[in-house]
Design a protein that fits this description.
It is found in: Cell membrane. The chain is mainly alpha-helical and 420 residues long. The chain is built from 15 helices and no strands. It has one domain: Amino acid/polyamine transporter I. 76% of the residues lie in helices and 0% in strands. The longest helix is centred in the middle third of the chain and has 46 residues. The model has no long low-confidence stretch (mean pLDDT 87).
């Protein structure tokens, strides 16, 4: 157990939860979902927010019940389903790698735009931020809780001010400016495509033993933080689009919020938004890389990942996991497309959260409607996203299906080989 002086207090847990979600989420997905859902973008965030809130409840419920962190992998282990636990953990690590690559992609685009840089600068920045954070984590200074909380606080304030100012300039015509109005059902498609924006809160379940009085504090803190992020996303979706106009947000989807800030506040706006986006995405990369590397190390320690990942350096850092996962993320950030990375990661997290809700439903004796709502919404959203991927990105879904088959069939062989 962590020393009591190093325990995460409720305010810290709240800030890290919100930061883990907003850090890369809204910066990367807003333009993507507007292109699909148009004036119903706010509803897209609300629909997928239901999955996030119900999943947050289920994560806390199961963490408290088993009095242990580790997320979906640990929960399935407690249910004595080692095979599914191992396969899902591998798939979840793939999801985190995709997520880190999206955050690095966003970092490169937002920072490069402020310097009028092109494709080469974007790729250098994306690869550079991942490389820099790999080095920091290897040096043992990757997890900087107080710094992350400061970044989160400033980031949330910037987004809230932008959203509220946009809504104060109420002009619904901007929600469809330059585009055809979308039907209401497009909100479900848009929400499915960008569910990755709600990833991040479950990282706190890996820190369960560091949370002060988790049986008392974890549930209200996590649920309030996730609920706030859902509310903030809806505000930003409406307010920012009213300031920037739908077509501008779509044409510059990689840097949608910078376009809004520049159009509204000029040079000052672009400076503030670049700083906010840069630090927010960097912090999100850092926390996700740190947590994923430790997750990989813990999984390897339980013989569900090759022992190669169980290695630690002299500072107790899972160095091989950090280098391997970070490097893979950096490669994807400079070679992948935004929408493909976002949608592939979204599908993985929809599946994971659906399973966690199902486990919570099995163990619950009261409030069972909460995980049931999460299960139903996840199933509908997952089916919609699969069909969207098959129609619009058959290559991406083919690669993802190949990885799933490889994980399910090849995992036992790789584990046996690593023991020889």
């Amino acid at each position: 157990m962590a020393d009591s002086n190093n325990k995460l207090k409720p305010v810290s847990v709240w800030a890290l939860t919100a930061g883990g979600m907003v850090g890369g989420g809204i910066y990367t997905v807003l333009g993507v979902v507007i292109a699909v859902s148009g004036q119903w973008t706010w509803l897209s965030f609300l629909i997928t927010g239901i999955i996030a809130i119900t999943s947050a409840y289920s994560y806390v419920f199961l963490s408290n019940k088993f009095n242990e962190g580790g997320g979906a992998f640990t929960f399935l282990k407690e249910f004595n389903d080692d095979k599914l636990a191992g396969s899902l953990s591998w798939l979840l690590i793939v999801g985190y790698v995709l997520t880190i690559s999206v955050y690095a992609y966003a970092f490169g685009h937002y920072v490069a735009y402020s310097f009028h840089g092109g494709g080469i600068m974007i790729r250098i920045l994306a690869a550079g931020i991942v490389a820099g954070l790999i080095i920091l984590n290897l040096a043992g200074v990757g997890k900087m809780t107080n710094v992350e909380i400061t970044i989160v606080s400033v980031n949330l304030l910037v987004l809230l001010i932008l959203a509220v100012y946009g809504i104060s300039q109420w002009n619904p015509a901007e929600l469809v400016a330059g585009i055809e109005p979308r039907p209401v059902w497009s909100s479900l498609i848009g929400g499915a495509a960008i569910f990755m924006a709600y990833e991040g809160f479950q990282l706190l379940s890996y820190e369960y033993d560091r949370i002060k009085k988790p049986e008392k504090n974890f549930m209200p803190v996590l649920l309030s933080a996730v609920g706030f992020v859902v509310f903030l996303y809806i505000l930003v979706a409406v307010g920012a689009t009213m300031l920037g106009g739908a077509i501008s947000m779509i044409n510059f989807k990689q840097i949608a919020l910078s376009i809004v800030a520049e159009k509204t506040f000029g040079t000052t706006g672009i400076i503030v938004m670049t700083i906010a986006a840069g630090f927010a995405t960097a912090a999100a990369i850092n926390s996700t890389l740190f947590s994923t590397a430790n997750l990989a190390k813990n999984i390897a320690d339980k013989n569900e990942l090759p022992q190669w990942f169980d290695h630690k350096n002299d500072s107790g850092i899972p160095d091989r996991s950090i280098i391997f996962l970070g490097s893979l993320s950096g490669i994807l950030a400079v070679t992948g497309s935004l929408s493909s990375l976002v949608e592939a990661a979204s599908l993985i997290f929809i599946v994971t959260f659906g399973i966690v809700n199902f486990l919570a439903f099995q163990e619950s004796k009261k409030h069972r409607w909460v995980p049931v709502l999460g299960i139903i919404t996840a199933i509908i959203t997952g089916i919609v996203l699969i069909f969207r991927l098959i129609i619009s990105k058959p290559v991406a879904v083919g690669i993802l299906m190949f990885l799933i088959i490889l994980i399910v069939l090849g995992r036992p062989y790789l584990l046996n080989s690593s023991k020889k």
